[in-house]
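As promised in the previous annual report, we have extended the structural survey to additional targets. Below is the entry for Peptidase M41 domain-containing protein.
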Amino acid sequence: MDTQNTVVEIGYYRWPRDLAIHEAGHAIAAWFFGNSQVEISLAGKGRIARTYLYGEVDECNAVAVWRVNYPRTADDIMPYHLSSTEKRSDLINQVSGAMVCSLAGIVAQSKYTGESVNALMKTSGKYDMRNVHNLIEVYRAAGGKDADIQHKSLSRAQALITLKWWDTIALAKILENRNHMPASNFQAIMGTIDSYSPKVLTLDELDELAGEE
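The corresponding structure token record, generated without further manual editing, is:
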């Protein structure tokens, strides 16, 4: 399967601190899941965000994009994705991590503003939830058994953002001063905030932090 790009969209009209926090949450989660090619872009007046990795993304006010090599919707699933127990397991782990990344923006914004996660899921996080629902379909198709994987993914995202909160704040402050952060800039900035070779977090580690059994 060709490498794809994943997009996280958010529906705001300005670039206030809570929007920067939201996008930083996505980017930080992606980084600590091993995605170094992350790009963040603020949309212009026409609500079109321009990126190098994904081209133009419309009907949004900011996007975080990164490369992925797994199906993002059930329609993207090819026979080879499900051709063995090992491939199914790999796909389940990949989309489980992707759900955490999709929810991390909502979690970060909620932690900063005090707004409820449930409320943000219907406003600034509505596109994120569309991604999550698509990923859940892939998770089920691959044989994922957790009946409440969305809740578990939310707990994982909360654990990740709590652990990396000051990294999220640091990235958000830098984001506020620019309308575009290419992947090369993101990597350099994360090299100063964290390190050039981050310790990748696992789902099991996040479950332990979240108190999941």
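The chain is about 50% helix and 15% strand. Confidence is low (pLDDT under 50) at residues 10-14. These points will be discussed at the next consortium meeting with the crystallography subgroup.
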